[in-house]
Give the backbone structure.
Amino acid sequence: MNQPTESLAESLSELFCENVAVAHQESREQDGVNLIVAEISYRTSSSNSQSSKRVRQTVTVLDDDINVPQFVLFPHWKGIAGMVFSAIGAMNDVNFQDSPKFSADYLLHAWNEKAVRILFTPELREYFSRHAGWSARGNRNCITVFKQGHVCKSEELDEFLNASVDIFRLLQAGEKELDRHPEITREAQVQDAYAAAESMGGIAGRILRKELDRIVLSSDEVQQFLAQPVPRLDIPAGMQRQVIPDVKMLIAMGVVFSVAGIVVPVLVFLMLQGNDRLFAIPFAAMFLLVGGLMLFFSIRHGKRKYRLLRRGTVQTGRIERVERTNTEINSRRRYVLHVSYDVGGQTRQTTANVYSGIERARSLADQNAPVRVLVDPNDEKHVLCVDSLLIT
């Protein structure tokens, strides 16, 4: 398939949940397996920029057709770091009673545990048990294997590629095993996220369960909502939380800036004399402008979303593609849905920003499945893809 560098970087950014840069790449065919070997780098995300670090490593990417559930595999952290990680419960760990060494040596994270258990066949688990230090990530049509933070020297490359081919073949065998179980979906569902939260335990598990309880919608709630006459007065709490951003902090900051833009200049005017009072003018202008803009855009954005939910018309459309952006808001990655829908016999195309339900949206796009689109009566480009929400 020979992906261009930009496409490979985008695929790996999805897998690593970081902004990955590809320094160079090379396509190879080895023992009947097509793969790409590349040197990549990314900077680990951190709320404290001083603690972030740049990671460089050599990776191989399978360049053949495949379809796997999302998984992350890496060696278990040992010692104090492992104890802290377990207490926090940052990832659920899929363990196998019949592969105790594999489960002791590796952490296998999966949202869809049933599918990943089938993908990781006994042969694949045995291979990793006999070969320590490997990491792997996969989702949908992209799989990569690597050793975390390791850049291969030229004399190491052949051995690295041979091992990668062995792993890819075993994963391909796991995919065939999944094909024998059509009743098991590879896409993670909301129920899978709840199960992962239970397995995760610790602080992270409790936080995830609480967040799911706060935002998840039932299919009955969605049906009842869409069946209401316009204007819809009963908006489910989960839908409000998924669609309407929490702008209380921005509104509060806007009020603070606006008040400061009035109070501080008045104090300056009363306390200073002569030309020194002129200092109050630019201060007042800047703070009132910033505070006013914060209030205006926050309130306007919330009103547009409420209008869309209350007065939006339901149309049938399709998700053409899902685009990842480099923007994060409250540690949540922003994605753009490219949506088309028909109205009055004409096809309209527009985009919608989303922060959750990405896997579901991608699956709908791949299937070219019809979706329910809520269209703003005042702005036909302002839409909500209802079926991309987190719905049980």
